[in-house]
Specification:
By secondary structure, this protein is α+β, with helices and mostly antiparallel strands. The protein has two domains: 42 residues; 179 residues, ApaG domain (Immunoglobulin-like), CATH 2.60.40.1470. The protein is 28% helix and 39% strand. It has three helices and 13 strands; from the N terminus they run αβββββββββαββββα.
């Protein structure tokens, strides 16, 4: 009986010791996963879109710096061109690979509180963002224009309609995770600047890129 009891105690002790090792191992694994996730979030790339306020030619006030330049189309009296300069920047700690993306404009009635346009991107980007490789604290800027009907531009200049500049860029970080960064501002016709406001919060984000997002981008870039 004494021998059996000792054997039982030994077996229970070994089982308890093994269970303890398993628990310690599990805790170490969970700690490692949490540390790895934190490191990836800290060290990964963060690509953002931002506009430039620059000196556009203006006959009335040649020294006025504006975010947008609105010109009539010399080929058509029914169209205006909205010119802007956008920067694609990597503010993260590691390189990023830009997969694609685009810019577009929307309009909404001028009202209070402001009416926010749909966040859904168009079937086709008005301006495509080309793929590129960006090292940390670097990027590039490009100038582009988007056509706007004259009657819409007239309402914008009269203050009865609001112009929104919107965009998104998809990128891959060094850990092979894909993300989408959004951009959105509305144009203040008085200050000639693009404004960040409570109404633009949902337009400016950084989120994981989903399969649906990727399909949407590919369709927008290859739309006939």
């Amino acid at each position: 009986m004494t021998t059996n009891r000792r054997t039982l105690y030994l077996s229970v002790s070994i089982a308890a010791f093994t269970l303890g090792l398993l628990i310690v191992g599990l805790l170490q694994w969970l700690t490692y996963r949490a540390t790895l996730a934190t490191t990836r979030e800290t060290e990964r790339a963060y690509v953002v879109l931002s506009h430039q306020t620059r000196l556009w030619g203006d006959e009335v006030n040649p020294t006025l710096k504006r975010a947008l330049d609105i010109r009539g189309d010399t080929h058509s009296g029914r169209q205006h061109k909205v010119w802007f300069t956008v920067e694609v920047q990597n503010h993260g700690r590691t390189p990023a690979e830009v997969i694609g993306g685009g810019m577009w404009i929307r309009t909404s009635p001028e009202a209070y509180p402001p009416v926010t346009p749909t966040l859904e991107p168009p079937a086709r980007y008005a301006v495509n963002i080309a793929p590129a490789f960006i090292v940390p604290n670097s990027g590039w800027a490009f100038t582009a224009s988007i056509q706007c009907p004259l009657e819409v531009m007239t309402r914008i200049m009269e203050g009865t309609e609001r112009l929104w500049l919107m965009g998104q860029v998809d990128y891959r970080d060094r850990f092979n995770n894909e993300h989408r960064a959004g951009y959105g501002r509305w144009y203040d016709s008085n200050s000639k600047q693009l404004v960040a406001h409570v109404t633009t919060r949902g337009m400016n984000y950084d989120k994981p890129l989903t399969a649906a997002d990727k399909q949407q981008r590919e369709q927008a870039e290859s739309y006939p």
